[in-house]
Amino acid sequence: MFPHLESVPQKQLESTGDGRVEDDNVEQLKGYRKKWDGVYSNDLDIEWHCSFEQVRDLLEPYLQQATVDAGTEGEGHGKVLLDVGCGSSSFAEEIMRIGGYASRFQEVVLTDISSVILERLKSNWCERQSAADAARRFVVCDCRNFVEKEVPEGSVDVVIDKGTLDAMDSEADKAATFRECVRSLRRAPAPEGSSSTACFVSISFPAVARLHFLQAMAAAAEFHDLIESPHIHVVGDKDPAYGGRVVFVSIFQVKHGRPGRESVNQASPGTSQCPVPYCPSALTTTVLARAQKSQSIINEPDDEDDANIMGALFDE
Ligand SMILES: C[S@@+](CC[C@H](N)C(=O)[O-])C[C@H]1O[C@@H](n2cnc3c(N)ncnc32)[C@H](O)[C@@H]1O
After folding, report:
1. Which residues in 37-54 are b (16+ Cβ under 10 Å) and which e?
2. Which of 102-116, 131-145, 239-253 has the lowest mean pLDDT?
3. How many angstroms does the Cα of residue 88 sit away from the middle of ligand 1?
4. For a pocket test of ligand 1, which of 88, 164, 180 has the largest count of ligand atoms closer than 8 A to its C-beta?
5. Which PANTHER family does the entry mention (predicted)?
6. Where are the domains of the chain?
């Protein structure tokens, strides 16, 4: 869809060997923690980008496909939802409650770098817990480097990133976060006979740069045998060229035909088949076509000056 993707520097896509971030990123980790503890320390409760209700119709087929055999599996093989950089969001809770997925997921794992917000979320959310709800686990961790015992490789059926890739300071940190999200996804078919398909849902600002990033990630050698090309949807009230507010909802499905839970870096080719087909809305088609032609979600290519000015508004 975006032919100039090849221009994304390979350095951004490279692993640091075993997929772990390097020690000198510890300073950056402290920086993220300080910044976000600060953001949340004055009782800020905010839902970034959108509520579940606003994207429910779009996400429903993917959530159903990810949990299609929930309840038919043996104990310990229940479905897991992971919210990466959950902040004060109630998105995961809404999936359970409004979406009716409480009985389809065995566990909801909420992670963030800020212990301040996780403590608050824990007390708020636990007050509302009912016996029928999925178990919930609150984990303080760096999204660029999940702790294996907290989020084991290949253990998650639905990963949600809402605004967390947006919050990363560099392309390298975005790439590390993306890698961890994909690593955590349950490979198909797992367990034996499963017909479900795990997915990674990334909700972001409508930055054209994000389209390039996601496409480049999907095409990177370490991922392209594991995940399908993203289904990118533009969701909002109306066309941003006419003042509409939109977000990108990008969904990666695990490829079917995988032999098992092998490491991302050792993946061998599998057959490719997207269980949930791509059905872009008219708004999506219009905005993505414009973005491809003019590198702006607002302006057509001939409005060059305006495109530069307005496009910059959406740069991260
Ligand atoms: C824009 S907010 C989005 C919060 C929430 N997902 C939502 O939709 O309302 C970004 C979140 O990422 C978290 N975050 C930032 N850096 C992080 C890191 N290195 N590891 C994990 N979480 C991080 C922040 O604490 C914050 O909660």
Report:
1. eebbeeeeeebbbbebeb
2. 131-145
3. 9
4. 164
5. SAM-DEPENDENT METHYLTRANSFERASE SUPERFAMILY PROTEIN (PTHR12176)
6. 3-280
**Rounded CA separation 146/182 (Å):** 11
Q: What is the amino acid identity at position 219?
A: A
- What local confidence, expressed as pLDDT, does residue 180 receive? 97
Beta carbons of 49 and 203 less than 8 angstroms apart: yes
**Is 217 close to ligand 1, i.e. is its CB under 6 Å away?**
no
Alpha carbon separation from 21 to 129, 147, 179, 185, 208 (Å, rounded)? 35, 11, 11, 19, 26
Q: Taking each helix axis from N to C terminus, what angle separates 208-219 and 282-294, rounded to the nearest 10 degrees?
A: 90
The whole-angstrom separation of Cα 130 and Cα 110 is 17
Residue 103's Cβ-side half-sphere holds a number of Cα atoms within 13 Å equal to 4
Distances (CA, A) of 225 to 90, 155, 175, 259: 33, 18, 17, 11
What is the DSSP secondary-structure string of 209-232? HHHHHHHHHHHSTTTTTTBPPPEE
Architecture of domain 3-280 in this structure: 3-Layer(aba) Sandwich (3.40)
Place of tokens 């692993």: 15
Q: Is the peptide bond before 277 cis (omega within 30 degrees of 0)?
A: no
- Give helix 208-219 / helix 171-184 axis angle, nearest 10°: 50
Q: Residue 188 — very low, low, confident or very high, per pLDDT cuts 50/70/90?
A: low
Across 49-193, the runs of DSSP E, i.e. the strands, are 79-84, 105-112, 135-140, 158-162
